[in-house]
Amino acid sequence: MAGELALNLSVQPTGGNVSNALVPGVLETDLLPPTRGTALFVIRCVIPSLYLLIITVGLLGNITLMKIFISNSAMRSVPNIFISSLAAGDLLLLVTCMPVDASRYLFEEWMFGKVGCKLIPAIQLTSVGVSVFTLTALSADRYKAIVNPMDIQTSNAVLWTCFKAFAIWIISMMLAVPEAVFSEVAHINGTDNISFRACIPYPQTDDLHPKIHSVLIFLVYFLIPLTIISIYYYHIARTLIKSAHNIPGENSEHSKRQMETRKRLAKIVLVFVGFFAVCWFPNHVLYMYRSFNYSEIDPSLGHMIITLVARVLSFCNSCVNPFALYFLSESFRRHFNSQLCCRRKSHHERSTSYLHSSSAVRMTSLKSNAKNTMTTLTLLNGHNLKQEMSL
Fold this sequence. Notes:
mainly alpha, receptor, cell membrane, transmembrane helix, glycoprotein
């Protein structure tokens, strides 16, 4: 988030310039005493390297995830469309927010000009909105699949889900417009009369704006969505507990398979939500605490470490979902492994004979047809099992 992801800092105006204020773009490392030059050197080398590692891992995981879901028709289900949109939001965060945030450890002031100060915070907030709102939509989808399975419409479910995912992006961009409107480059007066530029995501007219900004960010992008998700999963848990006692034992094989598949999908979404909450909560708390309590930058090493941990943890959320899916979904794990080994397989196929290749193709076709036949069984409630078994 612009004010939050940038540096979790708040503004206390002092007129034309902002003096000793906690503002986005101001790092505690910029104000460390000279005696900490060695520590500052280590931070400027180690932290950007850590950021680069997170970006690399996140790009690898999310791009592979999207490639699997796009290239395999069997994986194009309602949950997977939302998960692909979630991966796209994570990619946007990785390629915009993280490089900008890492640059602040290499340069002592804002380096992206007025246009960058308008665009980058809005893009960052859009990506966070896509993530949390998509998780909410995923939870709603699992709620409908488990609590109200008769309400699921299978004829155009995939198309309707694409529309929902697109609407989430539009809403997230609209909510980020104020960030672009009010963000501005300000001159900051630090310790020892050192002046530098920083990008601030709200007006500097009074000390109320940072408080309003931090509270709204916390409510809209964390507390309210997680409350809605909690309500959904409360009803999901109740339904699953009841179903364990109400399903007959003899003629319910299809119902049992369906319920097990839906439970597994609900578990995957819940893990995504749990990672989001754990990774983002420290960042939100730190941002609000600073907005309400700080009037000057705390240059202590302990405070700086807490800030770095909170920010790195929030960024890590953009690269953990593909790996969580890898361990929780056998189907995704199989496709992911095939993507990693595709070059080796391609080389092996070119070296085999035509007869052997033809046999392999025929065998693969038979397996694919058998799989499609099994996954397109229509259940008693009219819901197509293919939409639930893709993961």
